[in-house]
Amino acid sequence: xxxxxxxxxxxxxxxxxxxxxxxxxxxxxxxxxPGKVSEFGPLDSNEPGGGGRLATGGWYxxxxxxxxxxxxxxxRRARFSREVQLVAEAPQLxxxxxxxxxxxxxxxxxxxxxxxxxxxxxxxxxxxxxxxTSAVPDLCHQCHDPEALGLIPNHAETSYAQCLDCHAGHTxxxxxxxxxxxxxxxxxxxxxxxxxxxxxxxxxxxxxxSLAEGQGISAMLRTAADHLENGRLWEARATxxxxxxxxxxxxxxxxxxxAIVQQVSALLETETPPESAGAELSAALAAVEEQRSARQRTxxxxxxxxxxxxxxxxLAEARAGFAELSRSEDLLEPIRQTVQRYLAEIxxxxxxxxxxxxxxxxx
Length: 363
Ligand code: HEC
Ligand code: HEC
Ligand code: HEC
Ligand code: HEC
Ligand code: HEC
Known about the structure:
It is a single chain. The radius of gyration is 35 Å and the shape is elongated. The longest helix has 35 residues, at 277-311. It has 16 helices and 4 strands. The N and C termini lie far apart (102 Å). It has 4 domains: 2-87, no CATH class; 107-182, no CATH class; 186-295, no CATH class; 297-356, no CATH class. Helices cover 53% and strands 2% of the residues. By secondary structure, the protein is an all-alpha fold. The strands form 2 sheets. The protein has a two-stranded antiparallel ribbon. The chain has a two-stranded antiparallel ribbon with strand order 2-4. The site of one heme C has 22 residues, from helix 3 and helix 5. The site of one heme C has 18 residues, from helix 4, helix 5 and helix 6.
């Protein structure tokens, strides 16, 4: 059984190099190819591991290399397609022992999301730290054009080649996978300040567009509450500032919203805002929105009642309803105009009735 698999393995490896490695996998004591250091060194399962840390002879060794069977199997697969059999393909293979980066919160590096572990890491051992397939920055330059990168202000530093001083390989809590140490530095502070301003200005523009496109204040309040709930403080602040400028916002609402904006601004100044702060402000905002919705439902009810009264000829009742509506601060302009037309219409009819006796139908 084992012999059969071996035959397949050897036949399937056309290239001299691969065949040699395959043989080295199954036979102990195959000497290195002339002029080449063996890829695996002594294939002794007692070889001291190093957790990837520098082991003997300048090699970084992947700890499980002690036992090839943790990753390889000699069992034949239905479709025989590669020289070596893996117990699972990467990235699933790697996730058997390492955290599944792609499921962590935050920003995730493109090739990590797609599970390209082996583009950046060797599974066995390397001369580079972290088992990287080539040293930084060469590794990064395989996918990121150095010329384009050179245009970024922070890359003008002489230390630019030390990509990992500023960027993480897998995930980050900010965009661009920026390292906490960089964000704490002077350059990092300057970068954050500028990035925050840009984020705020984009959010202002988005909120202004929503308002201009006719999105209601209630819907925008809900959007702002959602931003707060999810810690998007700049977006929340910008949205609230735009809402406060809204025509149909009442003086009371404006006051509540301004108070919340002040608290959001204070949070933005805080180095590490308490986790619950966003949720509390979001709840306060939800209360403002609920009051507004309740008032609007009342207004809508009054509006339809008044129209019905008008149709039924109960003009005094209709007039009282429309008059109350016209005094309300938060009618949208088209509705306000309709209400005014009804009022004018009723007044004209009532005057005619007084002057000319019975109600006349409109011409
Ligand atoms: C942590 C998992 C892991 C361990 C442990 C491991 N390998 Fe591998 N090995 C791999 C992966 C993944 C590949 C496929 C590499 C690729 O596709 O580029 C591979 C490929 C190979 C290859 C094919 C040649 C090559 O480099 O692509 C040989 C031969 C091999 N391994 C031998 C061994 C031997 C011998 C051991 C034990 C000393 C061992 N491996 C231990 C994961 C492992
Ligand atoms: C774009 C290249 C790249 C890809 C793709 C990549 N890594 Fe890494 N990995 C790095 C770099 C760079 C480091 C060292 C610096 C660091 O920790 O950010 C590293 C460090 C590690 C470490 C040691 C430190 C730690 O975070 O535990 C492990 C384990 C690891 N990678 C596993 C993986 C696995 C599993 C995958 C596939 C899901 C993967 N890597 C994909 C570049 C990469
Ligand atoms: C059988 C378990 C196992 C599997 C499978 C496995 N690893 Fe590891 N890996 C380890 C252990 C154990 C360490 C050492 C952890 C330590 O030092 O804290 C390690 C360390 C690493 C490191 C860090 C090296 C350093 O310098 O700190 C990298 C990178 C890495 N593994 C990548 C991978 C990739 C990529 C795969 C999939 C191809 C993989 N591992 C599959 C067990 C595994
Ligand atoms: C296998 C190809 C590959 C390698 C190697 C690679 N990257 Fe990336 N990187 C990508 C892809 C794809 C994206 C996502 C592009 C995008 O979203 O615009 C990305 C995005 C990034 C980003 C974030 C850009 C953003 O818009 O948030 C940074 C920072 C970055 N890479 C740094 C590095 C560094 C540092 C290295 C070397 C350790 C590296 N990359 C190696 C493919 C790669
Ligand atoms: C001094 C810190 C620093 C170093 C070192 C550094 N970067 Fe950056 N990098 C940044 C910052 C900050 C950004 C955010 C963009 C900006 O400045 O507006 C960034 C952005 C990027 C982006 C995203 C570009 C885009 O517009 O989508 C990539 C990719 C990137 N860096 C890769 C690299 C690579 C590769 C290296 C190493 C050769 C490297 N960086 C070294 C700080 C650094």
